[in-house]
Write a structure and sequence with these properties.
The complex is a heterotrimer.
Chain A lengths: L4 H7 L1 H20 L1 H4 L1 H9 L3 E3 H14 L9 H5 L5 E4 L1 H19 L7 H23 L1 E8 L3 E18 L4 E8 H6 L2 E3 L6 E9 L2 E4 L1 H11 L9 H14 L8 H13 L6 H12 L4 H17 L8 H16 L7 H20 L2 H14 L3 E2 L5 H6 L2 E4 L13 E8 L2 E9 L5 E5 L2 E27 L6 E12 L6 E6 L4 E3 L2 E5 L4 H6 L3 E8 L4 H31 L1
Antiparallel strand pairs in A: 1-2, 3-19, 4-5, 4-14, 6-7, 7-11, 8-10, 9-10, 11-12, 13-14, 14-15, 15-16, 17-18, 18-19
Chain B lengths: L1 H21 L7 E6 L8 E4 L7 E7 L2 E13 L5 H11 L7 H7 L1 E2 L8 E8 L6 E11 L2 E9 L1 H14 L5
Antiparallel strand pairs in B: 2-3, 3-4, 4-8, 5-6, 6-7, 7-8
Chain C lengths: L1 H9 L7 H7 L13 H17 L10 H4 L3 E4 L2 E4 H13 L3 E3 L1 E3 L5 E3 H7 L4 E2 L12 E3 H10 L1 H4 L3 E5 L2 H6 L7 E3 L2 E5 H4 L3 H12 L8 H20 L13 H24 L5 H18 L4 H4 L3 E2 L16 H19 L9 H14 L3 H17 L3 H16 L1 H21 L6 H28 L7 H23 L3 H21 L15 H34 L5 H37 L7 H21 L5 H25 L12 H20 L8 H5 L7
Helix pairs in contact in C: 3-21, 5-7, 5-12, 11-12, 13-14, 13-16, 13-17, 14-16, 17-18, 19-21, 20-21, 20-23, 21-22, 21-23, 22-23, 22-24, 23-24, 24-25, 24-27, 24-28, 25-26, 25-27, 26-27, 27-28
The chains are: A alpha+beta, B alpha+beta, C mainly alpha.
Amino acid sequence: MRNTKLFKALTSLKLTVTTLSLSMVVVFLGTMAQENMGLKMAVDRYFKSFFIDHIAIEAAWNKTTQLFGSQPDPLTPEELRNAKRWPVFPGGYLLGTVLLVNLLSAYYARFKWTWSKLGILATHVGIVMLLVGQLLTDLLSVESFLSLRVGDRKNYSESFDYTELAFVSSLNSKSNQVMSVPGWKLRQDKKIADPTLGNLELKVNQYWVNGVPQGPRSLADAFKMRQPSHHGEDSPAAMAVDEFKAFARDQDPPPRTVKDLKALIDDFGRVDRRLTAAEWLGIYQNQRGQGGDFVIRMITGQIAEFIATRGKEGPLTPREMANECRRFVEALKHRENPPDENVLRNLTSLINDVAAFCQQRDMTRFVRDFSAFVEDKKLQPSGADSGLIAKRYPWVEESPESLSMDSRNLPVTSVELVDNGKSLGTYLFSARMISQEIEIGGKDTKVSLRPKRHYHNLYMTLIKLQFEKYRGTDIPKNFESRTLVEPSNGGASRVVDIYMNHPLRYEGDTFYQYQMDSDQMRQASRSSAFQVVENPNWLTPYLGCLIVAFGLVYQFMAHLVGFVKKRKAA
Amino acid sequence: MHRRHYKFFNVILLGCCFGFFTACNKPQIEAYGIPAEPPPPEGWVEMQTIGPEKIRYGVFEGDDYTGITATVTVLEGDGGGLEPNINRWRGQLGLGKIEGADLNATLEEVPSLGKDARMVDVNGTSVRSFRESRTVGVIVPRTELTWFYKFSGPPANLEVHKADFLDFIQHWQ
Amino acid sequence: MSQKKKKQSRKPAKPDNSPAEKRENPEDSPQHNVLRHWPWAFFALALLYVIGGLMPPKSRVELDHVEWGKFPVLKGGRTKPVDSLARNTLRKISHREVVPLEGNAPNGEWGNLIELKEKHPEGMYYRRWYQFGKRPKKLQATQWLLELFYQPEIADQRFIFRVDHPDLAGELNLNRKGIDLSGIQFFSFRQLQPSLGLLSEKSGKISQKNPMQRDPHENATYKLAEALHTYMKMRVSLQANFPNIEGGLKDHLDALKEVVPNAAEESRKASAGEEHNQDQLKRIESIMRPYAAMADDSSPREKSDKIMIVPPMEANKNPDDWHKVGESVLNSVRSNMQAEAEDNSTRALTFHPALEFYGRMGAAFTSNNPKSFNAAVVDYKEWLHKNHLGPELAKVDKEHYFNHFGPFGKSKRLYVIALVLACLSWLSIKKGNGAGSAAFYLVGLAFVIHTTGIMFRMWLEGRPPVTNLYSSAIFVGWGAVILGWLLERMYRNGIGSFVASIIGFCTLLIADKLAMEKDTMEMMRAVLDTNFWLATHVVIISLGYAATFLAGFLAIVYILRGTLTKSMSQEIGQSLCKLIYGTVCFATLFSFVGTVLGGIWADQSWGRFWGWDAKENGALLIVIWNAIILHCRWGGFVKDRGLAALAIVGNIVTAWSWFGVNMLGIGLHSYGFMGAAFNALKWFAISQLVIVAAGCLPLQYWASGKQLTGKTDSAA
């Protein structure tokens, strides 16, 4: 065996050098692929795999050529996830294994102990520990996030990468039972039955990796958001949206198909909108915020009264309303003690403003734009028929899958629940919505699609969040959370400050203060986040490093001492 | 001799490969127990929160809304203090500000929630709805935070559900 | 000295050149007795140059702009002297720290640029390198800033805006209309003013684009637009230098003092419909509007980068209470009006004393009255001390002195001279010649100044040496220089000096370029704010970079000297390779330990020892590459030439990890993005590959091939 070609090859330094060279290539390409694939996918496909597929290589190659001036289109998530992938290059795990085998067998074949070799030996032992340690970390460590507003109290953190369809039902007065079906399974399988789930069976109708459930009203809101900001909350278009929402709410039965929806929008365009005096002036109030308050409050009742005395019953069209108001102002002038000149002027300009505003509210334009907007969304029918979400949101708008670490995918799925062979209906679940209560097997069960939760043996409450910036800049200076930690078993609670380099370690979990920049901070609206890591293996790399460092220093000093001695002798 | 070497390699290779392939930290279907959060009283339905509120319930009798809401808000430190908060609640019911001994006279202790917990019970006319309204508020300081429980609605209905509320706040966090 | 002798004692083993050496060795020839000390004389000269720079700065004109430059301002989250503000701004705009006032007309006429410009619309140029007799008058950075603050109409005519791309000048219809400095044109704000709209529109579009994909023209446009933005912002940060606003800060303050106290009364009259002074209210508004504009920080950009000139009152109580001038004026006026409204009184309006002082200085400056200016400067300083800003003043004083001394510029110049001397030392066949010694001394001196500079920075910042890319360039250079200098001390063959000085020079040059972008002492983000890890991980990994570069440059010496000159003997070759090998070992140790410490830092900070982040991967590449070199050597796959070639590739790997990954814009560490610098990196890599290719030539094509093939085999 010692003399076989294979063994020689396995123990040879040539193999070491080749493997190391290949790992240089893998590390380089694995870095380059990160922009297109996102960190996680790049790490999975380059470093946590035996072979690298041709698509992953292409992603890296694209970025590399980009450095030299070409401008290739990045691969889409679908292209990246394409099932047809050919292994073309050794991956991190393969190279790691080969290095390990090469090293161990070389020692097995050639090793003879001398003190002078202690340094090299230690270095190699340390490297083995690092390699194996990294592997164990890959396999055993679990990372999740815990995000809290001041006063929030939670005993769980949420996974960044994984979602789950969770069924929570009461077990007894002290505890609840959670059944969790991972999102990747919903995505992959059409039918899910498992002894863990008991009699419950899931038939997955559809799974959208990233999507938004849409209904008439949510679409109207989205349409409003899309309007240029200078139009604002009180623009005619925005007002039309609000009216449409009210109109859609009253529809019975609600529209089920996109065609229904468009018919609904057209109907809305045809309705003649008349206004009461209060509504009419309310528009102004909406438009001017609190500023118009005073005048409005003063005259609303009076105008209504005035109109009633003129015998105009019921709501009026905006034009009629404006005319009535002008008459009202004229009447005011001829009163015994007419109001101040200024007030009258204000009032007239107010009426003109509202009238102009109402005339701008051209509904045909809204109907046309909104229809086009809905058309653009390429809505897909959700296929669900039961539950509140399915009723409110008959469609799903698919969003592109995000691969970046900075934004998470919010999946939507429509699933038929079958209990003991009997269908409970097809429900729509979305990571954006709160749970729905469904009776399963005689038990009220809260069902929701949510980021995978990891429960801990503690309750954490955020007491205070400190976010300081350097004066006059956006550079974060300090980020610190004051938390109350209560053990679930009823032990003594304590207040813990968590900040950079001062994590909270608790029963194998470590809670690190997550650092946000100013932008993220604004988005998170003053909530603090913690990265929670469970890594039983955290010590291995430390040991490995110590041993390698010792080995290298030993070897280096041995060289140096030898060198100096030689020079002295010469 | 030969055999031994092969064994040696096989063990390493198999060990590595086995490790790589089997132990995968992708989540699987699982069922487990968690501590149960105390359920809200019968008829309490979660509603959309407003402003800094942590949670808001509407109280129903069957399908009918009683007009009562129960909310909890948690604020840093003393949350601005007892006096301004109670006066804010009073203001919502169209009542004037009070302070000092007058204020203390309206307060009731709630020993089960700690020695600093205070309860206030006021009747008035809502400045929003112009209807008669009653507010039962409980202010509980706990570890550098203050919990504001507020139970408000039409006085007649409120009296019926007040016991539920007082019961629930014992473990409502 | 003893080492040199040792070497010579070994020489007789090589019969071909030792007799000549013996004969020509200056130590043996009495007639060189005096001259042989010239290296020391040279060293003394350099020392004088350095000591000259240590003298505290003094203003050469009567107006004491130097003292003015020592006033504290708060920008970028730290107090700094006005001098730093001026230098940073000017560097960003024109890549220089002075503004030359004189130059050449197209006909060769020499004189004041602004005056010449009136006669000659095109084709003017700055001093050419051969115009030794001409010493143009210059504005120091602080003088320029004074002018910008107080006499903007003149500052607007200074030719300070650097336009890198010739097409850009054409696009703005300014071809040949600027002042030329070896192909780069400098324009004045007045010239660029008509193009402001166009430039800001274009830069808005460019900023949407991935910096990697911007072409040089776009880069130049973007840079110019940024420079203009900086300039305009600075222009209105002390006094309301808006168009159509007359008078200086003092005039405005005085006018407000006159009208504001009566304003409450007037506006009450106005609302009551009584007769009132319309003009007075209008006047307040016309003065307040520009100051309100100066105070405005609604744009996120302004919010994140305020220039706060007005120091806190009672700094011992609220040291962070700095304000922008606009804010301070607005606050004073507002609180006065509020107080008056509350009790219906008339109160005198007072402003923050700092504003009064700056106003006085401005009035003195514009009326060309240096005495009164200097008096105001002294008074303000006194007030600052009284107001408990003494510690701040001491701190900015230090920085001011540091700016003035400019240790890195000085050591950079010394490195160049040492480099030339080291090269000269190889031309002469003599061993232990003067040029070599002079180079050795100079590198030593430059290193001492380099070290002083780093220590000074550490003292100023209260931080370990490396806090950002700029300081990492300086520190990597420092590490390489000390190693190279030690090698030179041991071998005294000019190689150590050469390598030390070239790396020292290059890294300082890179640092200079990086300093153009932003403040070099910027504040640390919370994530990085830990002196312990900065002191361990960052320092050690920087030393790893330094050692890898040192090995690479030693290898370059090996290959270039071997291929291009006949000066490389077998002995030199072997000792060089030993050096390379030793340095690679050192580099492996440091880059590995540094990388691992980085992992531990990451584990401490967010529980992830290794996350395959771009920068981590870069560091890993260096470690692996060094490991490859060592294993190749141990396995005998490479001998001397191969080792050298691999070590040179190490330069590329290191440059990539150091700068390249920052340019990708991926990952947590990407703190500095430099799209344009990528070209430089590319050319560096190509040059290294060319040298590697040269090294791969068979030995028979090497100029020193014969000596080298003497005994050793030519494996590679």
